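testing teh design pipeline on a random one, pls ignore if ur not involved
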């Protein structure tokens, strides 16, 4: 069947519209990858935040952290080695290979890495220093371990309060740390609402282990330690060097 002039014109115009766009070499780089504007940002992977050295386990907090999420900040003598190991593990070559040390207002106290800038190892002697968001702290200690604070204290010195379902195990762990494996394990956890115990999980000191009266969990949030309890908290204590 013969096509009219109008029909032929419509078909030609439709085919022209289906023609692929002309290749523009400026839109791709060699290898076919799109161009990226600006300098790429280094994203620290979770597996690269933790390193194990002879002195124990060290880890990097999230960027902008004000203090350690668990454990304690690294001492100045251990800062360079532990921080450099973390940097190397992340495949980064920092612009400054030396440790920046001094009284710094916009960095967190202690050992950190300038992760959102040039990855310089930094040690801040200013205990009132405030992280401006560009630093990540280097901390020492295990998240899975627990410790007891100073007898009579009402809050954790670092780490977080131990939950009720982990309280009995935490008390037994601290007992073992203090007295060795020969210590009789506690099998009973006392849970209640008292005014004279610290809030959360605690160990009663100065009482017999035989009576199963060492492990306590207080649900009263505004309670005050009468001085005879040791609060259980996450993280391990690290000797000051």
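output:
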């Amino acid at each position: 069947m013969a096509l009219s002039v109008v029909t032929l014109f419509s078909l030609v115009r439709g085919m022209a519209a289906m023609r692929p766009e002309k290749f523009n070499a400026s839109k791709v780089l060699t290898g076919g990858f799109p161009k990226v504007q600006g300098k790429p940002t280094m994203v620290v992977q979770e597996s690269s935040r933790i390193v194990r050295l002879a002195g124990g386990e060290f880890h990097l907090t999230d960027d902008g952290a004000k203090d350690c999420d668990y454990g304690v900040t690294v001492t100045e003598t251990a800062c360079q080695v532990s921080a450099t190991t973390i940097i190397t593990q992340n495949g980064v070559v920092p612009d400054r290979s030396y440790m920046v040390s001094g009284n710094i207002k916009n960095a967190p106290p202690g050992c950190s890495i300038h992760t959102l800038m040039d990855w310089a190892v930094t040690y801040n002697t200013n205990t009132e220093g405030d992280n401006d968001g560009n630093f990540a702290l280097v901390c020492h200690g295990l998240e899975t371990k627990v410790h007891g604070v100073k007898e009579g204290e009402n809050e954790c010195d670092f780490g977080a309060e131990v939950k009720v379902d982990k309280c009995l195990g935490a008390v037994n762990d601290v007992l073992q740390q203090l007295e060795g494996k020969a210590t009789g394990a506690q099998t009973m956890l006392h849970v209640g609402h008292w005014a004279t115990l610290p809030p959360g999980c605690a160990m009663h000191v100065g009482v017999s282990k035989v009576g199963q009266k060492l492990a306590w969990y207080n649900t009263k949030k505004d309670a005050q330690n009468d001085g005879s309890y040791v609060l259980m908290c996450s993280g391990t204590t690290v000797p000051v060097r």
